[in-house]
Amino acid sequence: MAGTVHKTVVIADDTPFVRDRFKAAIEHAGHRAHTVRSAAELLARVRADLPNIDLVVLDLRLPHAGGVELVRSIRKLDGGRLPILVFSGTIAGASEVRSLANLGIAGYVNEYSASQQILPSLAPHLFPDSFNRRHSPRVALGIPVAYRFGNTIAAAVTLNLGRGGLAIRTMNPLGALTRARVRFRLPNSKRDVDADACIAWSDRRVGMGMQFERINAADQAAVEEFVDAQYLQHAN
Description:
236 residues; Thrombin, subunit H; globular; five-stranded parallel sheet; six-stranded antiparallel beta barrel
């Protein structure tokens, strides 16, 4: 990840607590952050500064013009160019998840993530060339994980989990393309998930991403069910 490259992020949320925390984390890492509080402000910013924006982090429930229609309005301005992350707590239901997928949403982020997790959750979208990972929404999740490479077994904590892999927080990541065996247990599960994985990205300031290469059908189904449930839970 090219840490010397300065990126520009637009944070659209009408809650000062969320705006300020994300802005502080982004600026602390040396990047630029612009905050907006309404749909009108967001669209004006995109219209005026489109070539310079690298990422939009969006509250779907912005005043006056929220929801999927707001994302559709952005797409009319950007032609599908901008990566857009949606604050997961603002999803209204399953139909919105499907509509957002059709509009090319890059993923979801927890608006109440711990401050130290904010940049790692944004980094794959700010530096996509350095984070060559399977494209699917990620769930911010901190659970114990063990991984074996060669004759070494290491333990760490996950940053997030997707249908096709997971990210691990570690200051000693394995090199990209390294093969490893990973084991973890999903929340509220009584059995471990085992998978052969390949290191898809690696950065000493963040950790590493593992892409599943071989996983049995039952474990894959359990992972997919857990990840999907995080975005569909509001539909019931």
